[in-house]
Amino acid sequence: MNKKFTILIIGILLLAITGGIFWWQSEKELKELNKNLPDGVKIEKKEGQYKVVNKRDGYEIKMPKEWEELYWVDYIFEKGMIGHVIVLEPFEKEGVGISCIIPDPPDVNLEIWIQDYCEKFFKNPLIERGKIGDFEITKLKKEYSIRGGKEKISKYLYVFRQNSKICQIGGESKDSIHYIILNSKWSL
Q: What is the DSSP string of 8-20?
C-alpha cells in the first residue's frame, strides 16, 4: 500500500512539474511577443489559439487555428501612414497586417477613400466586391513577379467599414484573411 501511494504521489508531482514547465514556456513566449507593443495592445493565447486584444484601436482578433506559433509581432505608426498597423507573422505561414482607422472626415465615402489609398500605396490593383459574413468587403489584389519573373505571388488587401472605422487586412493568404474577418470582434 505504501509503495503504491508513493508511486501515485511521484506521478502527480511529475505531472505538476511538466505542466508548470509548459505554462512557464507559454508565459515566456507571450512576454516576448508583447514586449514591444504599446499599452492597450496585447497578444493572448488560450487553448492553443492566439488572439490580439487592441483596446487602442478598438478590436479583438482571433488568429487562424493553424497558426500554432507566432514568431514576430509589430505595432507600427509612422508619420505619413494612415493609422496604426499591427503585423503578425506566424512560423512557416503567411502573415497579415491589420489596421482600423477613423478617417478624416469620418463620413468619407468608402469607395473614394479606397481610390485615394490605392493611388498612394497599392497602385493598379484588381478590385472585386463581395460579402464576408455581415461585412461588405472591397478586395484588392496585386500580383508581383519574383525570381526574375519566373514566379508570381499575390498580395491581398480586404477593406471594410465598421461603424466609423475603416478596417484593412492585408496578406498573401485569402483563407487567413477570411478567418480573421469572420472570427473577430471589430468593435470593443
A: HHHHHHHHHHHHH
